[in-house]
Write a structure and sequence with these properties.
642 residues; Jelly Rolls; 6-stranded antiparallel beta sheet; 36 strands
């Protein structure tokens, strides 16, 4: 039988090449037709995304109610993203909302990071793969109880900076950031086959509202870069009348429902869907205060009424996560001086800091099951937790000896605030501690002139003499002979994240201090931002001293947690310690402080490994010498949210 394949030896060579070419072209055409994106299919079928053209949202031209929840990718270890989103979906929610923290994505001007823990596109793809829609809240200001509301501190190097206005120094920086951000998130819009069905324009601007041109600028910055989905704004009742912008749907933020606010929404945008963009499922905590709880008995009737009114809802937070590192914000409304937020962002949310189901979760799951025609997914299993045996501190290194591993110090005639130091490629120092040293020749009264931001440990020849902060503005310096070194170790405890004082959030020494009414001069300034490279240099150094020699504080203390099996989630607790920061395998778990309310720090299993795990604690005042572990958190004595 003769062969009629295109490789037949009987066929002329040119004809074979021609047929091969035709075959290849055919394969490409078929491949391209099979590769038509979701966006092309949607365009061809004229399917629409989220619309607000009537009293009810529509999605794909069908009635749609947003049952949303906030989970911030930057507050959850990447290895747990899927776990948290699956648990959200199993509760009956259909939409994920997330902020975008500008200060993490652009840590230095023009230097962008969208990798690993900050891989926003991976987070969006994950949400899509799990069948969740997304409302993106890109800022540039996000509040979020996050340092400076997510705005990068290097902007404060400009002494004339006016944040959240159309001041050119701010708008130029926003444009540069949005150039990078929108080209990454744009392809994940609904119209492009992605999960993003709406984008928020700024955040709670009505509570600030200093510049009437600002919101139109942000809106245009989004539209001009290709954002095509429904635009929204988000305001609490205080800012509702000033926070809107033409062409964006206004939404509300609250915890207790006020019918007057709903009526106002009806007046300003009649025949439009109503939504609670932030239904506050709990509240945040401040160092030195109590742990806030919002009981399920108080929450559920409000949620039920919101749904009965036909409104959409988004839980802020559905899962809070953790303010890892130095990223917590500070609160200043109604109090004389700023108070920093604690490290935990558990928020008393339906899904706990460690991903546990709460009573709120189960009640909401039962409620939302009535708003689905199909049964809800099975509950994902919980991650096992373990209280590891205590570990003993083996070595220590004083603050003064650690200075060898910092960058070269800076000399200055006058004090210089953190942000204006020539550190980090002249972007200033954003977080951590700054050590200011100068020479004194006498004792007397040291006055801060309220220029310490936020808390300074004061030393004379490395001996601790007291603390200067917002309450304590004067300190006695003991007499002594000859020249002595006066040191002020100043901690940025967290920049204010909400209100009208954002422009004033420079840290370190922000002005002169005086001894006996004489202004101090000739400073040597050390930047101690405690970034991973510094911690790694510290860990590898040969300068550590055995614990048989008493530590001199402040100090770094080192211990090892040995694991023979797969790691489990745990919580670190430090009874008998005072105040500081914990690093595990180079990861900054955040701050601890004996004044509470928080008494434990969450240590996720993915940040541990089999074998030796390195724990380094920076302690300011005193250490028990033992690091303990718990299988459950201790957030301190609680108080109901008022």
């Amino acid at each position: 039988m003769e062969s009629w394949s295109i490789f037949s030896v009987r066929m002329p060579l040119k004809q074979r090449y021609f047929l091969l070419l035709c075959f290849a072209i055919g394969v490409i055409i078929v491949y391209r037709s099979l590769r038509k994106s979701h966006a092309e299919v949607r365009r061809m079928s004229h399917v629409e995304g989220l619309k607000a053209n009537s009293s009810q949202f529509t999605l794909e031209r069908k009635p749609f109610r947003i049952l949303g929840g906030s989970i911030h990718y930057f507050r959850v270890p990447r290895a747990y993203w899927e776990d948290r989103l699956l648990k959200m979906k199993a509760c009956g929610l259909n939409t994920l909302t997330t902020y975008v923290p500008w200060n993490l994505h652009e840590p230095e001007r023009g230097v962008f990071n969208f990798e690993d823990q900050l891989d926003l596109e991976a987070y969006l793809r994950l949400a899509s793969s799990l069948g969740l829609w997304v409302i993106l809240r890109p800022g540039p200001y996000i509040c979020a109880e996050w340092d400076l509301g997510g705005i990068p501190s290097w902007l404060l190097r400009d002494q004339n900076m006016k944040l959240r206005t159309t001041y050119s120094g701010f708008t130029n920086a926003v444009n540069s950031f949005f150039d990078q951000l929108i080209k990454r998130v744009g392809p994940h819009q609904y119209s492009e086959g992605g999960p993003i069905i709406a984008v928020q324009v700024e955040n709670e601007y009505g509570s600030y509202a200093k510049d009437p041109e600002y919101m139109p600028f942000i809106k245009e910055a989004l539209l001009s870069r290709g954002i095509t989905e429904l635009l929204m704004t988000s305001d609490n009742k205080k800012g509702l009348k000033l926070g809107g912008v033409k062409g964006a749907l206004e939404t509300l933020n609250f915890q207790k429902l006020n019918k007057k606010d709903i009526l106002y929404l009806d007046e300003v945008q009649p025949h439009k869907p109503k939504m609670v963009m932030e239904y506050w499922s709990g509240w945040f905590d401040l160092w030195g205060n109590l742990h806030h709880v919002y009981t399920p008995e108080d929450m559920l009737p409000v949620v039920r009424e919101i749904l009965q009114l036909g409104m959409s809802i988004n839980f802020y937070m559905f899962h809070g996560g953790t303010n890892f590192g130095f990223m917590n914000g500070a609160f200043t409304i109604g109090i004389p001086s700023p108070k920093p937020m604690v490290t935990s962002y558990d928020y008393d949310a339906p899904l706990s800091e460690a991903g546990d189901y709460t009573t709120k979760y189960h009640l909401l799951r039962n409620l939302f099951s009535h708003y689905h025609t199909e049964p809800l997914p099975e509950l994902p299993s919980l991650h096992e937790r373990k209280a590891y045996p205590p570990v003993v501190v083996q070595q220590h290194l004083s603050l003064w000896d650690s200075l060898h591993f910092t960058d070269k110090p800076f000399k200055s005639q006058k004090p210089v605030n953190m942000e204006n130091l020539p550190a980090n490629n002249y972007n200033g120092q954003s977080y951590g501690y700054t050590l200011y040293e100068t020479t004194v020749t006498s004792g007397g009264i040291l006055r801060s002139k309220n220029n310490v931001r936020d808390r300074a440990l004061v030393f004379v020849d490395k001996h601790f003499v007291g603390v200067l902060d917002y309450k304590t503005l004067e300190l006695a310096v003991p007499d002594g002979k000859g020249k002595r070194t006066l040191g002020l170790l100043v901690e940025n405890c967290g920049r204010v994240n909400y209100g009208e004082t954002l422009d004033e959030q420079r840290k370190g020494l922000v002005g002169d201090i005086e001894l006996n009414k004489q202004l101090l001069r000739e400073f040597i300034i050390h930047s101690l931002d405690m970034k991973p490279a510094f911690v790694n240099r510290l860990e590898a150094s040969g300068h550590w001293i055995a614990m048989r020699h008493r530590p001199s504080f402040p100090a770094f203390l080192q211990a090892k947690l040995y694991l023979s099996r797969s790691p489990k989630d745990t919580f670190i607790k430090l009874p008998g310690w005072s105040k500081g920061v914990i690093f595990v395998n180079g990861k900054n778990l955040g701050r601890y402080w004996s004044i509470g309310p928080q008494q434990t720090l969450y240590l996720p299993a993915p940040w541990l490994h089999r074998g030796d795990n390195q724990i380094i604690v920076f302690e300011e005042h005193e250490a028990d010498g033992v690091i303990q572990f718990s299988s459950s958190p201790d957030y301190g004595m609680s108080v109901d949210v008022q």
